[in-house]
Design goal:
CATH class of the largest domain: Alpha Beta
CATH topology of the largest domain: Aspartate Aminotransferase, domain 2
Strand order of the largest sheet: 1-7-6-5-4-2-3
Shape: globular
Strand content: 5-15%
Number of domains: 3
Order of helices and strands: HHHHHEHEHEHEHEEEHHEEHEEEH
Distance between the termini: 69 Å
Structural class: alpha/beta
Largest sheet: 7 strands, mixed
CATH superfamily of the largest domain: Type I PLP-dependent aspartate aminotransferase-like (Major domain)
Amino acid sequence: MNALPKTAFIDPTGHNRAEIEALLQQAVALVLAEMTQAVARSPLPEALHSEQFEQWAQIPERSVEAAALLEVVRSHLQHSMNAAHPGYMGHMDSIPTTMSVVGDLLVAALNNNMLSVEMSPVFSRLEPLVMQQLAAQFGLGVAAGGVMVSGGSLANLQALIVARNAHFDALKTGIVGLDRQPVFFVSEVAHTSMQKAAMVMGLGAESAIAIRTNANSQLEISDLHEKFGQAHRAGQAPFALVATAGTTVTGNIDPIAAMAEFAQAHSLWFHVDAAYGGALIFSPEHRHHLAGIEQADSITFNPQKWLYITKTCATVLFKDFDVLNRHFRIAAPYMADDSQWPNLGELTVQGTRHPDILKLWLSLQHLGKAGYADIIRHNYAIATQFAKAVTARPDLKLASAPQMNLVCFRLQPQHIPPEQWDDLNAQLQRHLLTAASSIFLSLPLYRRQRWLKAVLLNPYSSSETISQLFESLDLFIQKNL
């Protein structure tokens, strides 16, 4: 094997330890150099030219020196989304916990597979226990538990598959022979993964029936009653109701308790997509926003968002964990059984899966409930400052009343025609990014208009950061209005 570089693998006998150690030290030095100077780079750097990517994508005939590769990677890092920058506020992404970075490195080296207990003997036992702890935080009860998946879309999909299978006894025979079309209900501003789930389940995207929302992007119970009646009159078969705890654009929370009551009254599976807002279970001051979530049959929660775990790290929790065995589990005869612990690959959409549990466990242990409560408290404080600054300016308008650390707003001066407002806000977005403030706000389409969205997530975003943003915004208004 003369063509292999000496550092191609970590020799289990330790014969190349010195070379491997030198390589890892170079990699760690690169990480530290870039991450400790992240504030010097733009939150959203300019993209590289496609010609460079085409050159990099070529597969070489012979090995490229590691040092040369790391220099190319340095360019990759410098031109990537810079979520560590305190001015990065455009999306639900942020700087990761140090321990989640460490956790990813460690499990990458081990390369265990969450398919079975045999293939991941420590992490396959740790994951169910930590999931029970999270479920307890949500108040789901002693029979609750969950599994980890690669993203909130898969979590929502798995919850809805279980709901469908349980309602129609569809695990073995499916739903092809049903005389009524299965449907479920979601907010009109729910995450697009709901339509994708309906499509993947063979129901068709339109089977995710959209319910009207109020001015604050919260589902209207009156319209839910109306759409439920329409579904029955149309010969459809409702089987689930989905609440959103933290809408993607405005961060609002549906009336969870009222929806839980409706679901129970009509024998619907009640799922809560708390991918973002679920972190409020760690906030003594703000967890009341999730009142009623303890009545959910299933919950999606993504620690990769407000718990700052490196991607991917998502969970789907069930009030009755045994429901997975009854309505989802497909046994894999090629895996050894364990009398006490489930093979998680039999209970998830994915078979092979990365051991994300270590970085989650490390971060929970390292920060603790009090640490996360502190961060959330800080996030709310600067979000309140941000919202007050918006309402203090007559040319700015909030999209909704903020409930969490998201503020969605737009510039809409009355002396300028409304058809020009979208372009004006796009100009403001570019101004904030290129100006001295170095602030990145996203520009989502909301109610057929362009709005600016700020996610006050980064623990290093400060009151001064917000003040700097509005100083730059005021300058834009002075120059352009």
